[in-house]
C-alpha cells in the first residue's frame, strides 16, 4: 500500500486528556508507525514534542496563537475575565470562542501542499467549518480526500442545542466533506438524512500494546468502585446515585477521577471517607487503577446517539461495569454489586474493534 501524506487537525492533543485529544493523538501515532507522512496540528502550549515526534514518526505543528480559543494541549492556558464575559454573551449565538478555529484552517492547509488525506476532528465543530471554507478558497489545491471525524453530533446533539441558524453551516460543511466518521452506528440518526450516505462508523481507538494491568481478582477489604470522567447536570448526573449511596448502611469506597467537582461538593459531608475525589490521571495510569477496583461505574448519557469512550477503558481493565441512569435508580442492582454479585453487569462486546491498528486501517481504507 502506498504511503500517504496525512494531516490531522484537532483543537488539543497529547498530553491533554479528552476523548478528542486521544482520538487525534492515537490515530496520528499509529499512522506514523505504519510509515505514512503524518502532521498533527493542535493548539500546543509549551510542551516539548521532540521525543514524541521521534518515537512515533509524526510531525507536531501548532495552530498559531489563538486570541480567544486559548485552551491548549498542555492545559496551561488561563481563562481571562474578558473571555468569560464574551463567552457568556456570545457563546451559544456565535459558537464563541471556538469559532476562531474556522478562520485558521485555510492558512494551515495552504502550507501543506500535496496532502492525500485531511482528517479534521471535532469537537469543536468550527474546525470542520474552517476546512469547508478552505476547500472553497483553495480549489484543486485542497487535500485529495477530506474526512470529518465527529465524536458527537452538532445540530443533533441531545445535550447541547445550538442556535437554529447553525444548521445552514452544518449542511454546507456536510455537502463539501467526502466522509463523516462517527464512533457508533446509533449516532447516524443525529445527522441530516441528506448526508447519511457519507457516514462511516469508526470507533474510538487505543494502543492495546500499552495496556499493562494486573489481571488478578482484586482483594479489597470493602467494595471499591471507580468512575472516571466528566459530569453534566441533568444528563450524565451522579446525584441520584450518590443520594442512594448516602443511605446504604454498609462500608464502601467510591473513587471518582474528574474535574467536575462542584456537583460532588454536597456529598463530601454525607459520604465522608466513603467518597474519594481525585484529579485525572494519564490513560495508562488510570487503567492500572481501574483494574484494582471491584467494579466500575458508567453514568449513561440518557440517549442512544452518544456512547462514553470510557467504556473501552473499562473493558480493557476487565472489571465488571455497573451502568447507572441519571433519571431512575435500580436499587436492587446497586445492592447486588455492593454484595459483589455482578449478574447485572454491562457487557462491552468485540473489544478488538477498538484496537488502534484496526481503527487506523479503517481510515486508510477510505477513498
From TrEMBL:
Keyword Transcription regulation carried by entry: no
Organism: Flavobacterium supellecticarium
GO terms, molecular function: glycosyltransferase activity
Protein name, entry field: Glycosyltransferase family 4 protein
UniProt domain Glycosyltransferase subfamily 4-like N-terminal: residue ranges: 23-209
Keywords in alphabetical order: Transferase
Amino acid at each position: 500500500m502506498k504511503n500517504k501524506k496525512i494531516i490531522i487537525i484537532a483543537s488539543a492533543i497529547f498530553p491533554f486528556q479528552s476523548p478528542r485529544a486521544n482520538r487525534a493523538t492515537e490515530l496520528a501515532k499509529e499512522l506514523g508507525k505504519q510509515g505514512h507522512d503524518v502532521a498533527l496540528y493542535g493548539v500546543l502550549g509549551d510542551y516539548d514534542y521532540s521525543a514524541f515526534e521521534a518515537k512515533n514518526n509524526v510531525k507536531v505543528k501548532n495552530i498559531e496563537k489563538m486570541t480567544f480559543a486559548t485552551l491548549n494541549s498542555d492545559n496551561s492556558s488561563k481563562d481571562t475575565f474578558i473571555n468569560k464575559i464574551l463567552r457568556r454573551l456570545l457563546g451559544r449565538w456565535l459558537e464563541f470562542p471556538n469559532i476562531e478555529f474556522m478562520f485558521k484552517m485555510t492558512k494551515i492547509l495552504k502550507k501543506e501542499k500535496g496532502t492525500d488525506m485531511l482528517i479534521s476532528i471535532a469537537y469543536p465543530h468550527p474546525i470542520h467549518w474552517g476546512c469547508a471554507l478552505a476547500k472553497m478558497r483553495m480549489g484543486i489545491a485542497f487535500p485529495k480526500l477530506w474526512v470529518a471525524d465527529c465524536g458527537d453530533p452538532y445540530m443533533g446533539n441531545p445535550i447541547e442545542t445550538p442556535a437554529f441558524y447553525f444548521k445552514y453551516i452544518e449542511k454546507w460543511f456536510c455537502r463539501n466533506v467526502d466522509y463523516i466518521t462517527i464512533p457508533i452506528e446509533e449516532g447516524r440518526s443525529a445527522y441530516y438524512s441528506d448526508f447519511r450516505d457519507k457516514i462511516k462508523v469508526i470507533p474510538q481507538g487505543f494502543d492495546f500494546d500499552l495496556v499493562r494491568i494486573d489481571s488478578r481478582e482484586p482483594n479489597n477489604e470493602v467494595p471499591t468502585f471507580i468512575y472516571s470522567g466528566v459530569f453534566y447536570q441533568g444528563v450524565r448526573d451522579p446525584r441520584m446515585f450518590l443520594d442512594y449511596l448516602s443511605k446504604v448502611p454498609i462500608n464502601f469506597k467510591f473513587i471518582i477521577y474528574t474535574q467536575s467537582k462542584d456537583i460532588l461538593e454536597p456529598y463530601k459531608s454525607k459520604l465522608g471517607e466513603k467518597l474519594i475525589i481525585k484529579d485525572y490521571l494519564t490513560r495508562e495510569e488510570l487503567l492500572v487503577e481501574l483494574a484494582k477496583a471491584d467494579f466500575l461505574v458508567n453514568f449513561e448519557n440518557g440517549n442512544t446517539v452518544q456512547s462514553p469512550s470510557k467504556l473501552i477503558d473499562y473493558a480493557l481493565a476487565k472489571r465488571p461495569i455497573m451502568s447507572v441512569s441519571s433519571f431512575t435508580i435500580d436499587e436492587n442492582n446497586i445492592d447486588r454489586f455492593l454484595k459483589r454479585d455482578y449478574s447485572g453487569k454491562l457487557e462491552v462486546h468485540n473489544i478488538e474493534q477498538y484496537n488502534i491498528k484496526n481503527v487506523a486501517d479503517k481510515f486508510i481504507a477510505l477513498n
